[in-house]
Amino acid sequence: MQIDVRVRNPLEFIGDDARLAEELGVDGVLNAEIEEDPFPGLALAAARTERVAFGPAVAVAFARTPMTVAYPAYHLQRFSRGRFVLGLGSQIRPHVERRYGMPWSRPAARMKEFVSALHAIWRTWDTGEPLDFRGEFYTHTLMAPMMSPTRNGSGPPKVFLAAVGPQMLRVTGEVADGLFPHAFVTERYLREVIVPTVREGQRAAGRPDDAVEIAVSSLIATDEAEFEAARAQIAFYASTLAYRPVLDLHGWGALQDELHPLSKQGRWGEMTPLVPDEVVRAMTVTGSDAEIATGLRTRFTGVADRLNFYVPGDVPPPGRYAGLIAELKR
């Protein structure tokens, strides 16, 4: 497994964080689109590193169009000489419509077309062939030479998709280079649902089984406070209807029936105590750095190509995970 680490997104921190992460020996650095646009900081991460892969895990695709994503991804891929990885996620309907003011419909089909449009745009920039992408959701048929970026000699960026449910997992297998499973996942769901469904999509598209990398994200906790932080994070995720398949696989669906109405009423403080220890432990690796490293290997060896981990809350400097990184490398 290759080891990735999350870095802080603000421009004041991300360059130093990325450089430190590379010095600690990780294979990749990831930021996320939460309170800030992920792309500006990634230029600083690229400038301050020489070896690691880097990218967003994930940027919100449907807050943008394929063209507005194609430009920064292409520039970052060229600038870094081929180290950029474009992570995309759909978000959920209320955020897309009410926060970003963008259309929402048939997210799996829309994402498949989004990725196909990206590749059509990048192919035009690489080869000079006319741009002629006509889909159900996106149409891109105009590219003047003066609007085309300097050609990228490193090939198109890899595209990783975030997915939980079966439709988006199959789309990932059909068109993506990698998968970011949600941190709201168990080893059982990963092995029994996620990987087989992705491979099903690959076979349907005539792709080999190794076409899609699996980049797992895991909650960790080294003490009781971090364990409770994980419980609170899981309560938030478990209230989201789109994530119910994970709960149903384990017979925990009734938990969402309790949590979802509370979330709609904004009663967040009442949600956390409802999550049983059994659920927290199934989604969180706990203990010392050495114990967590062993637990991560036990859960994900043979299924994860890449691995990142985090304690819920504000993203710390990468030095916070120096001991765990050393244990994993050992």
UniProtKB/TrEMBL annotation:
Its EC number is 1.-.-.-. It is an enzyme of class 1 (oxidoreductase). The keyword Oxidoreductase applies. Pfam families: Bac_luciferase. Residues 10-300 form the Luciferase-like domain. InterPro entries: F420-G6PD/mer, Lucif-like_OxRdtase_MSMEG_2256, Luciferase-like_dom, Luciferase-like_sf. Keywords: Oxidoreductase. GO terms for molecular function: oxidoreductase activity, acting on paired donors, with incorporation or reduction of molecular oxygen. NCBIfam families: F420_MSMEG_2256 (TIGR03617). This is TIGR03617 family F420-dependent LLM class oxidoreductase. It comes from Pseudonocardia broussonetiae.
